[in-house]
């Protein structure tokens, strides 16, 4: 059966229909971007070379290949990093709908090559106007489920406004051209990836309670789609067509806004047309810090990521780790710095439009020196040595993409609907799956959590407030020149995934693919555990000797990154954990066989 002859939402299960998807990009009148597509040979050590692309003509690293291709097609058409980022974000919201989309929001950093200025676009979701501090309390006790699934979990979406703002400020191509790749994929269909199929199977029991959403991902035989099935999204195509032809107005005052309010309110939510009409992106200044010859440019509050990264690197700067091996003594210090940053995140961070956040103190060298003095080289410390305020819930999810163009413009964008498929609230008219970003607030401020720590008032629910986030889009300069764009997905592990990738490349000089694909670790101060991705890591005994409580946990963090090479070219890596593949706008250098370095 030909791909175009199949009927319904799920057109076919033939994987050879992938060629019909790449035609979607060609429908835009654009040449197909170059992508490393070598098949990994059978080997005991995974060959991740297909997740790396090198180019001097610009690169896009997204967590889905089709999103990378959509962005690279914009570069091939003469667009810049903003054009590529906007197209890639629209595409990844379609191909990875469990993680991001037009029902969500996010953060973008954009650095202009000619001026060296970095602009922060904050299109994070906001609490509805009727939200209040105790809205998730039932008989005086917090009910986390109310903030996870259903209408009360939905914040005011900012994704469409954010993408529109990015393109309007910095883009070069016509807006219609930006939307066309995602629109064509929605109409023509695209192969379901392994990651989407896995998340659907994991969520299958819960989807039974949300039949309209389940129907989107159900084949004609009644089964959920599997890897290789061709998924057509006629519902989302209607939204994308309006976005292409009318801009963002329909999302905030028009037909899509009306349908969104109806869907959310029918699910018990409090979103109103006035909430959507009043939504605006916030343009902010980045937080910046230094580590030796590197300048770190990252996201300010309501993100906690930038402050945490800079604080941790300030602590590390006094340890002279460059002279040490990647082993237990160095990793212990790296983890201890991270624990201090997470404890301060819990105590001080929130939406700076609503609360005072001591950013300058937290990212100062003087404060880092004080914390460094408390760190023991051969042992960790009890919980209360780091802080006494309970962290907010910050569940895993999200997508990140990085772009660098031939002119040297750099972009890092992280976008999300929060947990897997967000609130599960779905609008059948226009295909939006709505966020559950309200879960990122501290829903029980002033109450002790299971560790006996008091809930953070800084991140309490308030009308129009943005919840605290771990999203950490980050740019790095080396000796004043562009060096790296990166970020990740996965709740609080976004910070640690980004942090360890930066540590591995900036301090230990490791190859970018090694840094991204190597064994992941995570510590967020609470719980008092160092999570490791694999058993039997050679440095594990040394960490246990220093008092760290190790627990093996499958990683759900995925990092996308682009790094400058000594010859001036760039390398892009999309994390194998999420199956992404980067793309370039023109034939890139062939990637030699690559085996990750032994840890």
UniProtKB/TrEMBL annotation:
One of its GO terms (biological process) is glutathione catabolic process. It is an enzyme of class 2 (transferase). Residues 567-599 are annotated as: Disordered. Pfam families: G_glu_transpept. GO terms for cellular component: plasma membrane. InterPro entries: GGT_lsub, GGT_peptidase, GGT_ssub_C, Ntn_hydrolases_N. Residues 1-36 form the signal peptide. It catalyses: an S-substituted glutathione + H2O = an S-substituted L-cysteinylglycine + L-glutamate; glutathione + H2O = L-cysteinylglycine + L-glutamate; an N-terminal (5-L-glutamyl)-[peptide] + an alpha-amino acid = 5-L-glutamyl amino acid + an N-terminal L-alpha-aminoacyl-[peptide]. It comes from the Bacteria. GO terms for molecular function: glutathione hydrolase activity; leukotriene C4 gamma-glutamyl transferase activity. Its EC number is 2.3.2.2. The active site is at residue 398. L-glutamate binds at residues 124, 416-418, 440, 469-470, 491. Keywords: Acyltransferase, Signal, Transferase. PANTHER family: GAMMA GLUTAMYL TRANSPEPTIDASE, RE13973P. This is Gamma-glutamyltransferase. It comes from Lujinxingia vulgaris.
């Amino acid at each position: 059966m030909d791909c175009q002859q199949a009927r319904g939402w799920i057109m076919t299960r033939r994987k050879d229909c992938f060629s019909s998807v790449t035609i979607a990009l060609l429908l835009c009148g654009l040449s197909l971007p170059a992508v490393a597509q070598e098949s990994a040979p059978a080997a005991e050590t995974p060959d991740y070379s297909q997740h790396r692309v090198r180019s001097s003509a610009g690169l896009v690293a997204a967590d889905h290949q089709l999103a990378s291709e959509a962005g690279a097609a914009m570069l091939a058409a003469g667009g810049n990093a903003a054009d590529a980022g906007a197209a890639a974000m629209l595409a990844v919201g379609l191909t990875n709908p469990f993680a991001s989309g037009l029902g969500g929001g996010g953060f973008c950093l954009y650095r202009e090559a000619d001026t060296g200025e970095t602009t922060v676009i904050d299109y994070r979701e906001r609490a509805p106007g009727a939200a209040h501090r105790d809205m998730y309390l039932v008989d005086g006790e917090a009910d986390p489920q109310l903030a996870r699934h259903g209408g009360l979990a939905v914040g005011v979406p900012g994704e469409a406004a954010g993408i529109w703002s990015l393109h309007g400020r910095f883009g070069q191509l016509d807006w219609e051209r930006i939307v066309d790749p995602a629109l064509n994929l929605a109409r023509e269909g695209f192969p379901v990836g392994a990651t989407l199929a896995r998340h659907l199977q994991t969520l299958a029991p819960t989807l039974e309670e949300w039949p309209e959403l389940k129907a989107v991902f159900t084949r004609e035989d009644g089964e959920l789609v599997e890897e290789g099935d061709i998924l057509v999204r006629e519902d989302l195509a209607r939204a994308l067509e309006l976005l292409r032809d009318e801009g963002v107005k329909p999302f905030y005052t028009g037909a899509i806004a009306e349908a969104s309010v109806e869907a959310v309110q029918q699910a018990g939510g409090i979103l109103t047309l006035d909430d959507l009409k009043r939504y605006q992106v916030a343009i902010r200044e980045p937080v910046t810090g230094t580590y030796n010859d590197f300048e770190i440019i990252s996201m300010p509050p309501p993100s906690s990521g930038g402050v945490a990264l800079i604080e941790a690197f300030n602590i590390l700067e006094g340890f002279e780790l460059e002279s040490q091996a990647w082993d237990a003594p160095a990793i212990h210090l790296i983890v201890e710095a991270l624990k201090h940053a997470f404890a301060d995140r819990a105590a001080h961070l929130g939406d700076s439009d609503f609360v005072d956040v001591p950013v300058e103190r937290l990212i100062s060298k003087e404060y880092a020196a004080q914390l460094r003095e408390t760190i023991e080289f051969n042992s960790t410390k009890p919980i209360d040595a780091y802080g006494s305020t309970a962290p907010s819930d910050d569940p895993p999810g999200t997508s990140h993409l990085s772009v660098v163009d031939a002119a040297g413009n750099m972009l890092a964008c992280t976008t999300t609907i929060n947990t897997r498929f967000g609130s599960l609230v779905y609008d059948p008219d226009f295909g939006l799956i709505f966020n559950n970003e309200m879960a990122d607030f501290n829903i029980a401020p002033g109450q002790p959590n299971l560790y006996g720590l008091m809930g953070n008032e800084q991140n309490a629910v308030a009308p129009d407030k943005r919840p605290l986030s771990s999203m950490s889009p980050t740019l790095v300069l080396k000796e004043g020149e562009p060096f790296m764009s990166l970020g990740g997905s996965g709740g609080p592990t976004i910070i640690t995934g980004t942090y360890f990738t930066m540590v591995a490349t900036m301090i230990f000089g490791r190859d970018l693919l090694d840094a991204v694909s190597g064994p992941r670790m995570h510590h967020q101060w609470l719980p008092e555990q160092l999570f490791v991705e694999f058993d039997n890591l050679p440095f594990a005994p040394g960490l246990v000797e220093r008092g760290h409580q190790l627990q093996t946990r499958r990683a759900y963090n995925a990092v996308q990154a682009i790094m400058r090479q000594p010859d001036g070219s760039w390398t892009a890596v999309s994390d194998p954990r999420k199956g992404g593949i980067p793309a370039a706008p023109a034939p890139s250098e062939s990637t030699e066989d690559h085996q990750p370095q032994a840890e």
